[in-house]
Amino acid sequence: MVEWGKILASGIVRKTVALHPVWDQYVRNTQAIILEEGIDASYSLALNYMLLIAFNLVINQGVDEVTWEMMSSFLEDQKTLENLNFSDLTIKYEEALKEKYINHNK
What we know:
The protein is mainly α.
């Protein structure tokens, strides 16, 4: 049995991530499905929901050969990885500038 109380008591970790456009589309579709169920779902909630499902599937069912090949292909796609890393660095730089601006204007 999952002890959600203990997990949630550890606090929420807020991070900014850069997602591949395909992954982003799946997150948005998941968010729409959750919203249609009448649950107020943020983008972050939908992403976490998808990750929990994915982890659970991998833990319980493993990864088949087709999925493994797809994952390996992604890791070998240097252009996509560079774009995601660049997006992540850009987001971090923008956040650092905002923080510096906010602290400077206090």
